[in-house]
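User: Some background: our group keeps a shared notebook of sequences we're curious about, and every so often someone picks one and asks for a predicted structure to add to the entry. Today it's my turn. The entry only has the sequence so far, pasted here. Could you supply the structure so I can complete it?
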Amino acid sequence: MRKEDKSTVIEQIAATVKQYAHFYLVDTTAMDATATSALRRECFKAGIKLMVVKNSLLHKALEGLEEDYSPLYGCMKGTTAVMFCDVANAPAKLIKDKAKDGIPALKAAYAEESFYIGADQLDTLVSIKSKHEVIAEIVALLQSPAKNVISALQSGGNTLHGVLKTLGERSEA
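Assistant: Of course. Here's the predicted structure to add to the notebook entry:
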């Protein structure tokens, strides 16, 4: 590959890293063309961009960015595919669903501004909640006390109504 081509590829990788909030480094060494094609289709359906890269070019692209990605450099060995996404746990769920005998295997991930190194981090990554899930939980927590007060007032009102009705019936008799 010519030097001009390499610099173009490095710029493309760097632009893609900047575009997406999260990315995963995945080992696809033992995957044949059919399996890789199926993985690409699944990634597309899940809103994940899959890119197979040369480790040296990825390394140079990450070095050229403002963020310090040095914890990931040790994982760049063998065949590396990069999964870019906007939802932190989407690639982890896909890898967990599709991985047979550890293929594709997680090498490392950069998600929610943190580094996750090693395949043993997959379950941790799957459990990361998306921004929308966290907001939904906060709204539910904020609504809970208000709902409790309203239901207490309603049940108290029904009890008070029952007592008054009973007292009203007694005085008539």
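Suggested note for the entry: Residues 3-128 form a domain with the Alpha-Beta Plaits fold (CATH 3.30.70.1730). The radius of gyration is 27 Å.
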